[in-house]
Amino acid sequence: MNLGAALPPYMSQRKGIFYFKRKVPASLVQAFGDQTQIWKSLETADFSAACRQLAKETAAFELRLATVRLRILSEGLPIAPASNVIALREDMIAALVQRYQVHMLDREEEELRSMRPISMVDLKQRISEADETMQHYRLALTCGDYSVVEDTAKQILAGEALSARTGSEIYTHFCELLLSTEVKILSEQRARLDGNKQPIPQAPLPIRLQPTLTDYLNIWTSAKIRPRKTLDTASFMVRLWNELMGDIPAATITRVHVKSFRDQLLARELATATIKNRLGLLGAVVNTYNEEYDIEGVSNPFHKIPVQDNGQHVRAINRVLN
């Protein structure tokens, strides 16, 4: 690696060895044994190997952060038991299948590592099995036969304390994406057996540990003293967001979501300046959370959302209706 090149976020280098380096949010230092910063050797001088290990360390650190954050937020409140199952939502599906994909690739990696050196006979057998299964799954995907992944789907939902009625539209969509992901997994495993190894991506946090805009608001509220009117306005806007858009994981919020929210505010005939101010306030809530948890390289979906003159918006609606 060119030592003059910039390292990825949270990576550092000492005497040729790469390290995971992450600042502990000030509000959580005590929970981390008074550590203000985490340094952990990635135990390699190879940049590619360090990047793979960095992804795992980052995922582990994020999970620890989320666990501590949820414990703090729930202090003094009854904690829902693990058996308190919630309904599967559309915004959860992508993270569920991605977590499953990373899990399967990690498991395959561990199996191959334990078998090294792998014999040519074992290698050929694995390639043949991967090809046969992939062909079977592709045919099932083409025919819309998702029964081949139903057991896996139920295991994933049970593990995340989620539920979806068998045969429902959302359950079918989940199974469809899961089957498509199975094909991707087999394709990646096949490529690895051929020697074309790619880094395993970082897994998203478990659904119940993914913070929502409500969680972001709690961090923003406690970050510093703010005028009561500003606090009330921010609280109202987050409640309105939850009412109109749902209390979805904040990391899944896109500019498409925000524009839809903006249009619903315009339909209520709020002043253009008011809408811009409210969206800017929600953007500030997101920024504060990202700064508090040292989250880098993430765009703010509320940033610079265009808001046309409300009169133009109402006239445009009337033209469509008339």
TrEMBL record:
Q: List all membrane-crossing ranges.
A: none
InterPro entries attached to this UniProt entry? DNA_brk_join_enz (IPR011010), DUF6538 (IPR046668), Integrase_recombinase_N (IPR010998)
Q: Which UniProt keywords apply?
A: DNA-binding
Highest taxon of the source? Answer: Eukaryota
Q: Does the keyword Cell wall biogenesis/degradation apply?
A: no
The reply to whether Amino-acid biosynthesis figures as a keyword in the UniProt entry is no
Coiled-coil intervals in this record? none
Which residues belong to any copy of the DUF6538 domain? 11-69
Pfam families reported in the protein's UniProt record: DUF6538
Name this polypeptide is given? DUF6538 domain-containing protein
Q: What species is given as this protein's source?
A: Discina gigas
